[in-house]
Design brief:
Strand content: 25-35%
Largest sheet: 4 strands, antiparallel
Helix content: 10-25%
Number of domains: 1
Oligomer: single chain
Distance between the termini: 11 Å
Order of helices and strands: EHEHEE
Shape: elongated
Mean pLDDT: 93
Number of helices: 2
């Protein structure tokens, strides 16, 4: 099984949606742009957001087990994927890559 590198690429925040729809949350996300996590196969890295893992884990599993070219030519690097977490108020984009 292959090691997978997950890099936090970008964090967004939609204050208009937060103000209109969300109940106040004091502490929502601990991740920082540029932060890197290494997965040993399909195991969630320590300190990684549970909600984000739910979004990323199918892609991590595919790449960890040798899959590539997800969605037929979507990524320039066939052994990678760009996936965002499922937080509609504060989405975080992650680059998932196979490490050689």
């Amino acid at each position: 099984m292959k090691k997978i590198k997950i890099t936090v690429m970008r964090k967004a925040r939609y204050d208009d949606l937060i103000a209109k729809y969300e109940n106040p949350i004091e502490h929502a996300c601990d991740l920082n742009e540029g932060q890197v996590f290494i997965c040993e196969g399909w195991n969630k890295p320590a300190g990684f957001c549970d909600s984000a893992w739910d979004s990323l884990s199918p892609f991590v599993m595919t790449l960890a087990y040798g899959g590539e070219d997800i969605y037929d030519g979507w990524m320039k690097n066939k052994k990678s994927a760009m996936i965002s977490c499922n937080d509609g108020f504060r989405p975080v984009s992650f680059l998932i890559e196979v490490t050689e």
